[in-house]
Amino acid sequence: MSPVLLVTGGSRGIGAAVARLAAAQGWDVAVNAVRDMRTAQAVVDEIRTMGRRAMAVQADVSDETAVCALFERIDAELGPLRGLVNNAGVVDVAQRVDEMSLARWQRMFAINVQGTFLCTREALKRMSTKHGGTGGAIVNLSSAAARLGSPGQYVDYAAAKAAIDTFTLGVAREVATEGVRVNAVRPGIIDTDIHASGGQPDRVQRMAPQVPMQRAGTAQEVAQAVMWLLSDQASYTTGSLVDVAGGR
To answer: Which domain holds residue 235?
Structure first.
């Protein structure tokens, strides 16, 4: 039986790149999305052509009931979970903190932080030897913004990702003797459509000159780091924050 991986926010960008690469490396994959199930199903169809099992599962990761149902469907249709990539996340339009609304902050933390907490909790219930599991690996998608602060852009997003960094460190140490490794990848400027969703479709082009390597990264380059952390090649790596940011 092939190992089973859940990728949240797996219909596009980094999530889709992870899902495809995981399938190429022998994983069966559950691709989660909250709205765009047509695109999620296209990723699933592509994975199936590789001879792997795959399923598209709709769920809002900030909704506890939906998250529990998501994991139960994976249990029933794919089998025991061995990997989780907490990739689902949002940005918002560029604003100063004194221009931001409470509703914006609540959405930002509900999806980017609470969603990761909920999915990690459910994964640990299945993976940890404390709960009768056989182990596994979790990779959280953080951001270089967590250490840069993103002033004048989205300090709230940066703060949410900093919370993910601390969460990663704490959970990794909490379950280190229970067969579960927990790490995070912190992408820098990556050429995906998340920038357009924040109202800045030209952000990659504008920001590239600030990167020491003078270019944006690709979703595939981030996926390579994620897959290394999921693999047995990273068997002694837990509680690590891996920057994939071109030196920025």
So the answer is: 4-244
Q: How far is CA 136 from CA 81, 124, 182, in A?
A: 8, 9, 9
Respond yes or no: is residue 157 known to be catalytic.
yes
The strand pairing partners of 183, in sequence order, are 139
Task: Catalytic residue, from 27, 71, 157, 167: name it.
Answer: 157
- Tokens representing 107 are 């959405």
Main-chain dihedrals φ then ψ at residue 227, nearest 5 degrees: -70, -30
pLDDT digits (tens, 9 = 90+) for 97-115: 999 999 999 999 999 999 9
Report the number of distinct structural domains present in the chain.
Answer: 1
Helices (H), 49-185: 64-77, 102-109, 115-127, 145-148, 155-174
Token pair for 214: 């003078």
> Cα(91)–Cα(78) distance, rounded to whole angstroms?
31
> For each successive 10 residues of the chain (248 residues), what is the average pLDDT?
96 97 98 96 98 98 98 98 98 96 98 98 98 98 97 97 98 98 97 64 78 94 98 98 96
- What b-and-e string marks burial along 54-90, b requiring 16 or more CB atoms within 10 Å of the CB? bbbbbbbbbbeebbeebbeebeeebeebbbbbbbbbb
Q: For the purposes of burial, counting CB atoms within 10 Å of the CB of 120, is it exposed (0-12), middle (13-18) or buried (19 or more)?
A: buried
Q: Which of 180, 175, 167, 97 is nearest to 134 (CA)?
A: 180
Helix (H) / strand (E) containing 39:
helix 37-48
Q: What is the CA radius of gyration of the chain?
A: 17
CATH number at residue 183: 3.40.50.720
Is the pTM higher than 0.85? The answer reads yes
